């Protein structure tokens, strides 16, 4: 069952009550509740990939030469972000061992701040507590999706989350169609390399290249952006499909607490980076938030953050976890 009505319903309700980032948080909340209550639904792979392409195109249209001038400050920012990832992973592991009595390897996988598909594949190989890991990791993404907009609004009164409609020039539909086709083709080949978020990266690269060279001008029409955020929210909620109440009860609370710990250290290191480099504080919050990649990149789009800065940090985090997680699990075998 596709249940296409769930996401739009959640977006409409969130927009009506004035929730932050309504087109993302609304579908996420409604779809997560529906999944836990037993409704089975999914987002078809082509639709998911298309939504990532649109989000990537939206990001790339915001790249400016001025934003790249700040790139000299990014190495220190990336180092601080990676420090927070290491701290979250190690502390989270011990937290889950003591709170949920998970074994050491499963707790390491569950505490990883991102890279869900990679984490679950390792769990299957080592016969870890995969169901519990899935609930905790899905809870992390859900909690961050709902929590990040609130943190952003509390730390900066001038930020308007959910501002999808603006007065800027819109890209012509023919140019948009060509960009989407190029992005889908590029995403297909990038996916073959097993790089995460292939279609999102493809959309961002194509849009950045075309806007930066003047081949295309304007931003993605709001209708497409809103639709992409609704699909992303539905996708997050779909992660709770087939999670039974017993699994949810035993792991959800631990997942929320683990996410709050991760959010605290991410916010701390983001603040240190902001004070040291003078980078925009809200952008550092989005860039340091511990996953998921597509969700936080989309959140950056909603606040018109520097897309290159945000994307590079999250992609670096995912690649770093590809080495950190196996090291933490198998380090005894390496001695």
Annotation keywords:
335 residues; single chain; mainly alpha; Na+/H+ antiporter like fold
Q: From the coordinates shown, what is the CATH architecture?
A: Up-down Bundle
Number of domains: 1
Number of strands: 0
Evaluate the radius of gyration: 19 Å
Largest sheet: none
Order of helices and strands: HHHHHHHHHHHHHHH
Helix segment count?
A: 15
The name of the CATH topology is Na+/H+ antiporter like fold
CATH class: Mainly Alpha
Separation, N- and C-terminal Cα atoms: 49 Å
Percent strand equals: under 5%
- Shape descriptor reads globular
Helix content: over 70%
Kindly state the mean pLDDT as a whole number?
82
Flag low-confidence runs: none
Look at the helices and sheets and give the structural class.
Answer: mainly alpha
List the helices and strands and how they pair.
Elements lengths: L5 H12 L4 H15 L8 H16 L4 H5 L4 H27 L3 H8 L4 H11 L3 H26 L17 H20 L5 H15 L9 H17 L6 H33 L3 H8 L4 H10 L4 H28 L1
How does this model look, in words?
By secondary structure, this protein is mainly α. It has one domain: Up-down Bundle (Na+/H+ antiporter like fold), CATH 1.20.1530. Helices cover 75% and strands 0% of the residues. The chain has 15 helices and no strands. The chain starts with 5 loop residues before the first helix and ends with a helix.
Structure summary:
The chain has a single domain, classed as Na+/H+ antiporter like fold (Up-down Bundle), CATH 1.20.1530.
């Amino acid at each position: 069952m596709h249940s296409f009505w769930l996401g739009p319903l959640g977006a409409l309700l969130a927009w009506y009550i004035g929730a932050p980032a309504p087109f993302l948080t609304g579908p996420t909340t409604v779809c997560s509740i529906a999944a836990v209550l037993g409704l089975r639904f999914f987002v078809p792979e082509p639709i998911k990939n298309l939504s990532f392409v649109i989000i990537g195109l939206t990001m790339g249209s915001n790249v400016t030469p001025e934003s790249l001038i700040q790139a000299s400050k990014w190495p220190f920012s990336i180092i601080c972000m990676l420090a927070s990832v290491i701290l979250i992973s190690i502390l989270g592991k011990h937290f889950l061992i003591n709170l949920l009595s998970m074994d050491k390897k499963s707790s390491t996988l569950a505490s990883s701040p991102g890279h869900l598909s990679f984490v679950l594949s390792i769990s299957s190989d080592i016969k870890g507590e995969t169901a519990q890991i899935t609930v905790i990791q899905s809870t992390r993404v859900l909690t961050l999706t709902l929590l990040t907009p609130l943190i952003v609004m509390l730390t900066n009164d001038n930020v308007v989350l959910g501002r999808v409609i603006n007065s800027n020039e819109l890209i012509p539909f023919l140019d948009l169609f060509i960009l989407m086709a190029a992005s889908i083709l590029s995403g297909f080949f990038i996916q073959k390399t097993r790089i995460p978020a292939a279609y999102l990266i493809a959309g961002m690269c194509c849009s950045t290249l075309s806007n930066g060279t003047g081949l295309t001008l304007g931003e993605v029409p709001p209708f497409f952006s809103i639709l992409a955020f609704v699909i992303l929210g539905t996708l997050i909620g779909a992660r709770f499909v087939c999670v039974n109440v017993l699994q949810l009860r035993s792991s959800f609370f631990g997942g929320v607490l683990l996410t709050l710990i991760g959010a605290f250290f991410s916010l701390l290191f983001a603040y240190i980076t902001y004070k040291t480099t003078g980078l925009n504080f809200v952008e550092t919050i989005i860039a340091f938030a511990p996953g998921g990649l597509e969700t936080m990149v989309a959140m950056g789009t909603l606040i018109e953050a520097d897309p290159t800065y945000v994307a590079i940090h999250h992609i670096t985090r995912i690649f770093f976890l590809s080495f950190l997680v196996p090291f933490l699990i198998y380090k005894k075998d390496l001695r």
